[in-house]
Amino acid sequence: MDKDEEAGLRAFALKVGAYAGASYPERPLWVERDGVRRDVVEVEAQWREEERLGFRVRLADGSSLVLYYVPELDLWSGVWPDRGTDGMVRRRQ
């Protein structure tokens, strides 16, 4: 991972609480950004990439979030795929 890629991940850094069973992280439990904590109510998908783990989760407020965990950096980052171009969160019904 080069410095630019790491800087990009850090730009979207989040605090994440995760369940650690046989390995860390097994599944995210909550996400915090700007001092606001949201519970994860469902892990919709998870996958492994070369340098990171990915999770698509649904939060208690109805929004979706794509989380990445980079073990090498012990870093969580995330993006809200359901944010509109106006910055508003599109909630599931």
Walk me through what this model shows:
By secondary structure, the protein is mainly β. It has one domain (3-79). The chain contains one helix and six strands, in the order αββββββ. The protein has a six-stranded antiparallel beta sheet with strand order 1-2-3-4-5-6. The longest helix is centred in the first third of the chain and has 9 residues, at 3-11. The termini are far apart. Residues 84-93 have low confidence and may be disordered.
Summarize the structure.
The protein is mostly beta strands and 93 residues long. It has one helix and six strands, in the order αββββββ. The longest helix is centred in the first third of the chain and has 9 residues, at 3-11.
Radius of gyration: 13 Å
Molecular shape: globular
Put simply, the count of helices is 1
- How are the strands of the largest sheet arranged? 1-2-3-4-5-6
What is the percentage of strand-forming residues?
Answer: over 45%
Order of helices and strands: HEEEEEE
Tell me how many strands there are: 6
Class of secondary structure makeup: mainly beta
User: Biggest sheet, open or closed, and with what strands and sense?
Assistant: 6 strands, antiparallel
Instruction: Calculate the terminal CA-CA distance, rounded to whole Å.
Output: 38 Å
List the uncertain runs: 84-93
How many domains?
Answer: 1
Please give the share of residues in helix.
under 10%
Task: Give average pLDDT, whole number.
Answer: 83
